[in-house]
């Protein structure tokens, strides 16, 4: 990924992604493609930061006047204590994936939620008053839950393998809307599929290279016009989505969420709306080259 005719200069503003490990991150490709296309004087690099070095790293980026950065595993929760303020969505989700440096004041945001919701709107699906079922209840599910609660779903059902763990998560969100937890092999969960308008996979089951995996779903029980969304972005079409499509459901994959969270962060840093389609293309090309296709 080059910078076209542009060079990194003394004036170039710095952005990056902080995580550990970080070499696998797709964000530098996504963001530098958008920077190049927008013709703005920024550069986005990877920032390898081991867990115990987080405090020093944030102080360093603050001292070096970085414009902002993304935050990924393992720092999404811990970084909140190092910032000057955290916006309300990120506070409720309990994780920050984007930091913006406004004249030395470090503000934390969570753009995963925006990234998840955008493709639903593009598909013409309004969650208001709908029944949403989410498979899995880990880190990514938190942004999905908050996005749907904020959009006023009627109820969220978490279908999981470990209800005790998911119940603790559900309790954190209970003040904001109705949320129940069911074991995904229980009869009650199968019955619930019949009234589900939106089914979302937030587990890693089916992610490359374990492409044969998928969460347990009885497609014959799922409401006929339910929209099926997998937040996994590699492969492009998971087994979960292929089977959903074979059963006549409209589908959404995780590409839009990934590009969308990046685009929202880009706008927070630069004030410019990036070319989302270009970001998705850059992402797809990078994933294909990594898988040797
Ligand atoms: P995570 O925090 O580890 O949570 C994973 C969830 O899936 C947990 O509820 C976990 O259950 C469940 N799970 C994991 N392995 C399982 C298995 N073998 N059988 C049954 N359940 C299993 O992971 P995450 O950060 O939420 O990420 C989950 C997926 O979302 C990954 O594939 C990731 O690539 C994708 N993702 C996509 C985007 C995007 O922008 N498109 C953003 C973030 C994440 P337990 O709690 O019982 O372990």
SSE run: EHEHEEHEEHEHEHEHEEHEHH
User: How helix-rich are the residues, as a percent range?
Assistant: 25-40%
Instruction: Please state how the strands of the largest beta sheet are arranged side by side.
Output: 2-1-3-5-6-4
Percent of sequence in beta strands: 15-25%
Taking all Cα atoms into account, the compactness measure Rg is: 19 Å
Q: What small molecules accompany the polymer chains?
A: NADP nicotinamide-adenine-dinucleotide phosphate
Principal-axes geometry comes out as globular
The largest β sheet comes out as: 6 strands, mixed
**Low-pLDDT sequence parts:** none
Give the helix/strand class: alpha/beta
Explain this structure to me?
The protein has 293 residues and is of the alpha/beta class. The chain has ten helices and twelve strands. It has a six-stranded mixed β-sheet with strand order 2-1-3-5-6-4. The chain has a six-stranded parallel β-sheet with strand order 9-8-7-10-11-12, with helices on both faces. β8, α6 and β9 form a beta-alpha-beta unit. The longest helix has 16 residues, at 255-270. The protein is globular and about 60 Å long. It binds NADP nicotinamide-adenine-dinucleotide phosphate. NADP nicotinamide-adenine-dinucleotide phosphate (NAP) binds next to α4, α5 and α9.
Fold blueprint:
Elements: E1 13-19, H1 27-38, E2 42-48, H2 54-63, E3 68-71, E4 85-86, H3 88-93, E5 98-102, E6 105-109, H4 112-122, E7 131-135, H5 139-150, E8 155-160, H6 163-173, E9 179-183, H7 187-193, E10 198-201, E11 227-230, H8 239-246, E12 251-252, H9 255-270, H10 276-290
Parallel strand pairs: 1-2, 1-3, 4-6, 7-8, 7-10, 8-9, 10-11, 11-12
Antiparallel strand pairs: 3-5, 5-6
Helix pairs in contact: 1-9, 1-10, 4-5, 4-9, 9-10
């Amino acid at each position: 990924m080059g910078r076209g005719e542009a060079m990194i200069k003394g004036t170039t503003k710095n952005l990056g992604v902080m995580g550990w490990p970080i070499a696998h991150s797709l964000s530098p490709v996504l963001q530098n493609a958008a920077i190049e296309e927008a013709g703005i004087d920024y550069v986005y690099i990877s920032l390898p930061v081991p867990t115990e070095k987080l405090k020093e790293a944030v102080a360093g980026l603050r001292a070096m006047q970085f414009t902002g950065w993304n935050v990924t595993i393992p720092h999404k929760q811990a970084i909140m204590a190092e910032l000057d303020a955290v916006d309300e969505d990120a506070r409720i989700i309990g994780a920050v994936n984007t930091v913006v440096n406004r004249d030395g004041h470090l503000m934390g945001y969570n753009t995963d939620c925006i990234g998840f919701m955008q493709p639903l709107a593009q598909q013409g699906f309004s969650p208001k008053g709908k029944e949403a079922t989410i498979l899995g209840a880990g880190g990514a599910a938190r942004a999905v839950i908050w996005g749907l609660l904020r959009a006023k779903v009627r109820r969220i059902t978490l279908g999981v393998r470990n209800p005790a763990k998911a119940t603790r998560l559900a309790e954190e969100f209970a003040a904001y809307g109705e949320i129940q937890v069911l074991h995904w092999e229980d009869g009650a969960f199968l019955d619930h599929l019949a009234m589900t308008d939106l089914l979302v996979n937030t587990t890693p089951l089916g992610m490359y290279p374990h492409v044969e995996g998928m969460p347990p779903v009885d497609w014959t029980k799922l409401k006929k016009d339910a929209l099926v969304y997998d937040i996994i972005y590699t492969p492009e079409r998971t087994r979960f989505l292929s089977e959903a499509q074979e059963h006549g459901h409209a589908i959404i994959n995780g590409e839009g969420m990934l590009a969308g969270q990046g685009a929202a962060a880009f706008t927070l840093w630069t004030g410019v709306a990036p070319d989302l389609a270009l970001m998705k293309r850059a992402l797809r090309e990078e994933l294909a080259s990594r898988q040797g296709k």
